[in-house]
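Backbone shape codes
____________________
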Amino acid sequence: MVSIQINLYGRLGTNLGTNIKLDFLENTSPTIRHVITKLIEMDPILKDILLKNDKLSQGTILLINGHIMNRSELGLDTPLKEEDHITVDKLGFIEIVGGGSEEKKYDYN
């Protein structure tokens, strides 16, 4: 059995929890695609969040042992090893809120 440790951050871990261990058969060479597929099987909502056109959707950040995988030439077919640690997060929009109702005028002279 090959076990891969996964951390899901933000809303990704809402239904599954933030710390997951996925097991693959010994003769399987797991890839990122296998991990994503298993996560989606466990929580189908993740499909629309993580994938778009069979690629990681924009704003999805996936790290393998702290290194960003999004730029890997192999993409979702990047192979994994027993000791690999996967981190997944999704960037959202950050709202910046300003306060005050008075219009301030500055005199730079």
